[in-house]
Design brief:
It comes from Acinetobacter equi. This is Lipoprotein. Helices cover 72% and strands 0% of the residues. The radius of gyration is 20 Å and the shape is globular. It is an all-alpha fold. The longest helix has 24 residues. It contains six helices and no strands.
């Protein structure tokens, strides 16, 4: 019985332990995952007939220069695609652009972390 109580206490304390701080590479990877999710959302907007001007207007509200650069690249790439191709495979198009921009972001050299709020 004492071993069981000790084991339960150990499990509870382990669950309450502080998380280790993320390395800069882990932070960058998390940021790039957010960039990929933004690309997917921009593709969704394009598929739902949101005009490019409106997407650019919204992107101009982003304050971080690194993030703004990625967002404008995504907008240019997504709005350059033929409408027919993005509507033939709706989910596939979203996933493709998400994975492409996540990979592109991860491969991008970086010296500093962007100022962003992960979700």
């Amino acid at each position: 019985m004492k071993k069981l109580i000790g084991l339960i206490a150990l499990v509870v304390l382990t669950g309450c332990a502080e998380k280790k701080p993320l390395t800069q590479e882990e932070q960058w990877h998390g940021y790039c995952k957010s960039v990929g999710n933004a690309a997917r959302t921009i593709m969704l907007d394009r598929q739902n007939a949101i005009p490019k001007d409106q997407a650019i207007e919204h992107a101009n509200k982003v304050e971080d220069d690194i993030t703004k650069g990625f967002i404008f690249d995504i907008i240019e790439a997504v709005y350059a695609l033929p409408e027919k191709s993005i509507k033939n495979d709706i989910e596939g198009s979203r996933e493709k652009v998400r994975s492409e921009f996540t990979a592109k972001c991860i491969a991008t050299p970086h010296e500093e972390m962007p100022d962003y709020k992960p979700f």
